[in-house]
Amino acid sequence: MNLATESLLALYTRDLNKLAEELKLYPDEGAIWKVSDGITNSAGNLALHLCGNLQHFIGTVLGQSGYVRNREAEFSSKDIPRATLLAEIEQTKASLAQALSQLAHDQLHAQYPVDVFGKPMTTLYFLMHLSAHLGYHLGQVNYHRRLVGGDQ
Fold first, then answer.
1. What gap in Å lies between CA 9 and CA 13, rounded to an integer?
2. What does the alpha-carbon distance between residue 19 and residue 7 come to, in Å, rounded to a whole number?
3. What's the domain count of the chain?
4. What is the pTM assigned to this prediction?
5. pLDDT at 39
6. Burial category of 28 from C-beta neighbours within 10 Å (exposed 0-12, middle 13-18, buried 19 and up)
7. Which domain does 99 fall in, by range?
8. Which of 16, 36, 51, 80 is the most exposed place for a label (fewest CB within 10 A)?
């Protein structure tokens, strides 16, 4: 693994660990799935979305993991047990480690193999985007937890 992929994996791992910590801080499993005025996505749905997003774009596209994403279910599923969400986060970390450990340095500077935004981009650029996306939604989960009374 090169410095760039090591650094990215460290950031993904840090933030996925923080996502797991946030889910553990909810006072009960029901609170993870609460939505209210102005909050359209529960923490559970955001966790599913983050895991699906990373396992698809890194695990499958770059690492050929075979993961099949169901983006619609990421936002429509409800009341999945906390333990299942935590296991999905662990699976995501393993998938990222596997894919990024196989990624050659020259692949980082090559065009990402899937057209995501309607314009070409390097794999490194997209991996940085995915890290920012993870951080964005992680902040939403933290805020959601505090709004629904999980400020422990």
1. 6
2. 18
3. 1
4. 0.96
5. 86
6. exposed
7. 3-147
8. 36
> What pLDDT is attached to residue 37?
82
Write down the H helix ranges in the chain.
Answer: 3-25, 29-32, 43-54, 71-76, 82-102, 105-109, 123-147
Q: Is residue 23 part of a domain?
A: yes
Tell me the CATH number at 114.
Answer: 1.20.120.450
Instruction: In whole angstroms, give the CA distance from residue 67 to residue 38.
Output: 32
Write the pLDDT tens digit of every residue in 80-139.
999 999 999 999 999 999 999 999 999 999 999 999 999 999 999 999 999 999 999 999
Those residues with Cβ within 8 angstroms of residue 4's Cβ, 6 or more apart along the chain or in another chain: 105, 108, 124
CA distance 110 to 90: 29
Mean of per-residue pLDDT scores for the chain: 96
Residue 152 lies inside a defined structural domain of this protein: no
- Judged against a pLDDT cut of 70, whether residue 145 lies above it is answered with yes
Rounded CA separation 27/4 (Å): 38
